[in-house]
Write a structure and sequence with these properties.
alpha+beta; 1 helix; 4 strands; flat
Length: 95
């Protein structure tokens, strides 16, 4: 017997930014209609997708469904945000 699960929300728990490799990692929970977290996953957002994963024979496999591309300008925005945060914290705590 199959069970149908209706997902009603994506709960973003945390986001990490790898500025050097231009990838953003999002840790998310998928919430069902009862409000409970049904499952959690990690989604990767790349400016430039890495090489395709390979099978045992060296053939390209499809990218995992939780990998996405983002515009390079997003990383610039995130770097600017990081710099603003660092500046604000330095002015407050490194007097």
């Amino acid at each position: 017997m199959a069970k149908t699960i209706t997902l009603t929300a994506v709960n973003i728990k945390a986001v990490t930014i790898d500025y050097a490799n231009q990838v953003v990692t999002a840790y998310v929970g998928l919430v069902d209609a009862s409000g409970a977290e049904w499952t959690s996953m990690t989604a990767m957002f790349y400016v430039t997708m890495p090489a395709h994963p390979k099978d045992g024979s060296g053939n390209d496999l499809p990218y995992p469904p939780e990998w996405f591309t983002i515009p390079a300008s997003y990383i610039t925005t995130l770097v600017n945000m990081r710099n603003d945060i660092a500046s604000a914290l330095q002015s407050k705590f490194l007097v």
